[in-house]
Amino acid sequence: MRSPSEVKGAPPKALKPAETAFRKKIHEEIRPWGAFRCYPCRVTGNLKIITVKPGRALSLQYHRRRNEFWVILDSGLEMTLGKRTWRPKRGEEIFIPIRTPHRLRCVGRRPGRVMEVWIGRSSESDIVRLRDDFGRVT
Fold first, then answer.
1. How confident is the model at residue 66 (pLDDT cuts 50, 70, 90)?
2. Mean pLDDT, residues 25-48 taken together
3. Helices in the chain by DSSP H: which ranges?
4. Nearest to 102 by CA among 84, 119, 75
5. Which of 85, 107, 108, 114 has the fewest CB atoms within 10 Å, counting from its CB?
6. pLDDT at 75 over 50
């Protein structure tokens, strides 16, 4: 099992308490056939696989009651988190703090997927949309 400091995608910057607590509970175990990663489920409110069509984007949004943890499953995505925008690599793990604007866009030729883990009890009504390509701004 790897220690928290070796966890894939753990950024070198100073982590916020909620992110540190979540990342400490992630562990990876090596097996003869490869490995698996375990994410904490007791603090999870929901787990989704989101698929974004080429040329489409989620709303620029934030949440009032939950943090999120994303694992990038495919290449061809563009991530905005706060003021930073970049193209995450497949397997990259991203912590999205509560009340932080974020957006995912598919800039590739094929649909792109991300695994989204809600940290905290919440619902779909917790989305505050700042910008939206489909007229759903809150």
1. very high
2. 83
3. 17-24
4. 84
5. 85
6. yes
**For the chain, which residues make up each domain, given as ranges?**
43-131
Q: What integer is the mean pLDDT of 36-63?
A: 88
Q: Specify the 3-state DSSP secondary structure of 120.
A: coil
Q: By the 8 A CB rule, do 119 and 44 touch?
A: yes
**Domain topology for 43-131:** Jelly Rolls (2.60.120)
DSSP 88-107: PPTT-EEEE-TT--EEEEE-
pLDDT for residue 32: 85
Beta-strand (E) ranges in 1-138? 27-31, 34-38, 44-52, 60-63, 67-72, 77-81, 84-86, 93-96, 102-106, 112-119, 127-131
pLDDT at 5 over 50: no
User: How many Cβ atoms sit within 10 Å of the Cβ of residue 124?
Assistant: 6
